[in-house]
Amino acid sequence: MNDDVRNIVLGVVAAGISAALGWVARTYLWRRKLRRKQAFFGLPDNSESLLVVNRGATGPELSVMRYDVFALLELAALIKDCNAHAQILPHDTARQGFGERTEFCVGGPASNRRMAAHLSSLLPGVRVNVDSEPGPDRGAFQVGSERYRVENGREEYALLARVTAERSQNTRPVFLFCGQTSITNQATTRYLARNHERLTRKYGNSSFVLLLKVINSQAYGPDVVELVEDVTRAAQTALPAAATAPRNTHRAS
Fold first, then answer.
1. Which of 19, 35, 180, 249 is placed for a possible disulfide with 150 were both Cys, Cβ 3.0 to 4.6 Å?
2. Residue 40: CB partners within 8 Å, gap ≥ 6?
3. Diameter of the chain by CA atoms?
């Protein structure tokens, strides 16, 4: 074998080794990224999760609002990316505990009994006005001492929460997507889909509650979302029994 042939063979071998090492490195990084995502969502390979959805208030018994369907599609894609499976249940048939399977609960307490139960037991510092009569506070959120009113189509609020039961032996998280309108439910799921890596870096696998604001949904749909603040402490601190008049009211400008 002359020097030219030897150099060609060595070059081919080196290229093969480099390609193999590159493939191994990319596979390792991809798997590490997947494991972090699975840990954040509580969705190891082939695990089961629960999608709890509210029913449409004005449609047939089994109807779901269009934007809530879109929210379910956003979540279904996340679940599939984690190599997990999902079961969809209407809110009034999901009569079971939490923590054994990851749960994604979509919709406000006015149309989702499961959400109302979660807010009461997991986020006692949150109140949502569910009055059916029109009024300035209809649909308003109270978080701690502050109230956030809704102006449909202009400024609407939503809560995105990842919570676990402290006293439960089951540690799978519950994700809450509690919006003042159905389009804010979808905006909240989309925010999670776009920002879960940043949230993982910041919170790891700990609980958090974020207050989001959806801007001008009548023009921009669910795409323009602002993070108002992290309200974890206020949301998890029970309100005093007489806390009926919050100090601050946030209105749409």
1. 180
2. 162, 196, 199, 200, 204, 205
3. 93
